[in-house]
Amino acid sequence: MNKVHVLTGLLIVLLALCLGFDNVDVAALDAAATDYSPLGAQDKEQLRQMLAELDLQPEFLNFERDWDLSTYGKSPWHLAALQNAYQGLNQLGHIRALCAEATDQQGLAELLNHFSYIAWNLPDAMLLYADAKKHYQQRFASSVKRPKDIFGFYESSMQQLVPTFAETFSL
Question: Least enclosed by CB within 10 Å: which of 2, 81, 124, 151?
Fold first, then answer.
């Protein structure tokens, strides 16, 4: 397991601890419902008609929208949303569905899993989350003996993330 995967798992665990996850099942949810699309069927038809009035096709909405043509630091998820308008709508609909389903620990874990996919292009971090959660629960149990020890545990855990954040968000 490489450093990015370990740190991704750590980030998911820390977020999960902050949100109070417990006993998250690692099985994947079914595909998101299509009724969460930002544009409904009528809206898409209206858009198609508006484009047709200008002698344009819906696929004409697919064009380079990024002022910087390099892909450095850009996730495939974001590039796909920028370059293909309808795919971007589907992606937003999927996020909306995950948000709507995030009413319990499993749903919140799936939402965080999807966000890690967007950020680091990891197809499924749920197993990483489960492994990291177990590791940090064991570390927590062995290092936190008094309430004030929680701060040291949290600080040392966050310090492990600093290099990854520095690499991720700097040029």
Answer: 2
